[in-house]
Hints:
There is one protein chain. By secondary structure, the protein is of the alpha+beta class. It has helices at 7-17, 76-88, 108-132, 163-181; strands spanning 19-29, 34-41, 44-54, 57-61, 66-70, 93-105, 137-144, 149-162. Helix content is 37%, strand content 41%. Strand 4 (57-61) and strand 5 form a beta hairpin. Helix 2 (76-88) packs across helix 4. The longest helix is centred in the middle third of the chain and has 25 residues, at 108-132. The protein is globular.
Amino acid sequence: MTSLYYLIPAFVILILVFPIFTEIRVSVNPSYNRGVVALFVFGKKIFYYIVSLKGDAVELQNEKQTKMQKLEFSSPQFLFMEEFMRQIKDKVRLKKMYVFYNIGSGDAFSGALVCGFINQILTYLFLYLKSKKPTASFCVYDTVSYNKAVCEIAGRISASITLFDVLYSFVYSFIVQKRQRK
């Protein structure tokens, strides 16, 4: 009977080291000053927001609420998130990264040149990421709109991270932020 009590810490340890599969979907349309961000965990939607810039603030909107968040790059929350992202970027295991875009300038020649330039930049970015994360797969889906001016960009990133890595990065970032304030 006492050996069954060992299942509780074993279960907690298993939850901490089991990878959490996440997917982030981002879509941006600069001509309308609007974008969408969504987070999926194990294929279930956790949240999504329609994001738009309004002066020095960001408007976050979903079907339940609308929030205005003022952009302050020297606030303690921003410094905490900056340190948290720095800590977590090496712990994330990138699986897939897809980039979709539809770009056109109204002129066929200049639209094709712009799309070629964007493809070249994305190729260099993917080469850099592939050298850092060799097991990840990358893909670009492009569409050139020859007759009208369009700018639509979307991306999908699939990654995994353990709960232990998230907790460790959170605590470490909190400690670093407290030290910097003193």
